[in-house]
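User: Batch of two.

Assistant: Item 1 of 2:
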Amino acid sequence: MKVAVIGATHAGVFSAKQIKAEHPDAVIDVFEKNDTVSFLSCGIALWIGDHVSSPSKMFYESPESMAKQGIAMHMGTEVTEADLEKKHLVYKDLASGMETAADYDKIVITTGSKAIKPNLPGIHSDRVFDSKNWQNANDLKKVTPEIKSAIVIGAGYIGAELAEQLSVNDKQVTLIDGLDRVLAKNTSEEFSSVFQAEYEKHGVQLALGQMVQSFEETNDGIKVKTDKGEYEADIAILGIGFLPNTGLFKGQVDMLPNGAIETNQYMETSVSGVFAAGDSATVFYNPTQKYDYIPLATNAVRQGVLVGKNIAHPTVAYQGTQATSAVELYDLAYAATGLTAESAAMKDVDAESVTIEEDYRPDFMLSTTPVKASLTWEKKTRRIVGGAFMSKHDISQAANVVSLAIENKMTIDQLAMTDFFFQPNFGQPINYVSSVAMAAAAKASK
């Protein structure tokens, strides 16, 4: 079996490794435009903030390691033509310009995503930085020690983390977003308001509900003009979001309107023998029971593994995702899974939510701290569709608990009566996950 993997993204790396594990005799060619693989871009803000022990550890694989595993790595190589039906590729060595054609038994599309970069005046200035790949990370790491101010555009997870790390390192920061609150697509208002207060406490200027119109270089920096004002700083950083990088395959496979490639539960596209995974593909979103586009490394890794398990025959079905994620800003941890009441309404899920706040362990302990917990459920069925937690205590595993509940279609009533241990060092007699589920059941029954 001869397999081409287009793109050494998270999904590409795990696809190739799993294919080799399942089929040791398979001939696997991986094509990658860059000279690195498996960069953990979620660590860019942490690196800028000096929280990374070594940048080399921001890669969990290398071309050399993969080659030792028997995978042919074509680095600095771009696939320029693809006939998916015929499994025919043309690829170019970017250093020499030499083009080669080859035929395959299977093709795996793991081309990832591309940063959204609107065609605005001045956006290609050297003082406007992207925050997507290894090169972007290096560029930012070089410039940030020298600057005194920065404008961050986009208040999703990436922009929020960048703004926080720059602010705690004594930079004057302006955070711009088109929506009216930070992390608006990730949190409900009761959580984002807490973060907004922290940004303001740390001197971050919030320019929310504003659309950027242009960039203009000044004598010593950059001016960003929005529909509501003008802001100046030494640099601007883009963290607007991502789109699937699938233009090469347009018209050949079924896609969502945004270009995300649709797959079945075995990661196979509408063309037999062609698979897709990661940021280039759709996911089955369990809270809505529909396919969606949710670019997360966790989704990419699992989908890549499934490609390897299903490359020869349909074997292991995709269990779907809850889009479980987390962020820590100003020592406040936030972890969430599934839908908020607001996002449920946007996706036509008739849902309700409840929020509680209580100390994570008994007050007789010498120390404890509050946890804010939220649960969202479908009104008709009482099926859990989302949960969120915030605290200075580590609440990350609570989101994983609710994620598992969503995947298994548990109701708020079932979660309320699920057995969780009690020990004063770790929690209350009624764990806060149980407490919020009980509050949800009580509210739903009124």
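Item 2 of 2:
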Amino acid sequence: MKKTLFSRSFILAVMILTASSFYYLPYYVSKPGMAQDLTEIIEVENGYEENGNFMLTTVSIGRANIYAYLLAKFREYEEILPLEAVKEKDETDEEYNIRQLHYMESSKISAIEVAYKKAGIPVSYRYNGVYVLNIIENMPAENKLQPGDRIFKIDQNTFKTQQEFIEYMSNKKEGEEILITYERDSKTESVKIPIASFPDGSGKVGIGIGLVEDKDINVDPKVKVDTEKIGGPSAGLMFSLEIYNQLTENDFTKGYKIAGTGTINPDGTVGRIGGIEQKIVAADKAGAEIFFAPFENGAKDSNYEAAIKTGKDIKTKMKIIPIDSFDEAIHYLNQLESK
């Protein structure tokens, strides 16, 4: 009898534990991710080889169940984030993932432009339309379009830029109907959608979508950047350094393992990112010798300041270098003695 009671209690406990692991709290947990050699994901056609390597650093982030939440409370360099710190208001998981993948795509394009222009190689763009990032609730596009749809034609009109698209829509009036032609899962579809006023009282009209430009960059020699499902814009600086290094005969790695982070703008400026502490830990574990951190023009709470603090806490031997632009990173590497 006691054995049977124990078995039932054990099974019940297992069921409760299993069920609770699928119950998510209104938080995310971020922790150190990986540091990956960029030669594994970036290939310039007939590019030069390097003796050292540039590394992409990431943060692992996911919704917190009760166990992940409790573990993060007691583990160093794991951070508990409220939903609003990660996702935009009313943003679905699908919309969040699409936004992150778009940020990565934009980061790749900017990195390619910066690197090729620095190497004196011209670039050009091909406009493909706009991607739907999110759908505004109770607006006409709801249940007709989905996040990730690529709109490439409106009323039989194609556009060369996102601005042309926006200007065309701004001339529409409430009650008018437009024909949207879009691509979803490699299939072309069309749907008629009426124009309506936005519910925020702004007086503006539209169909109720958030959008971003979809464009390709054309370069010669060709470059392949395979990021699979890595999201976010924070690898921009390191992408640009790896691409430039493969384009030029001079090896800027000088034989070192060089990690780093930071967004990259088409003009080469480097911007702030999230999770710098976790990225320092990931780079240190991967054996990086140098780490580039956004300096933010010397701001008091810059990524660089947080990186230095974390570096001291974990007693890293990495040199943490403040960077505000692509050119600053190249200047530092030019002064670096080869191994």
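Confidence is low (pLDDT under 50) at residues 12-17.
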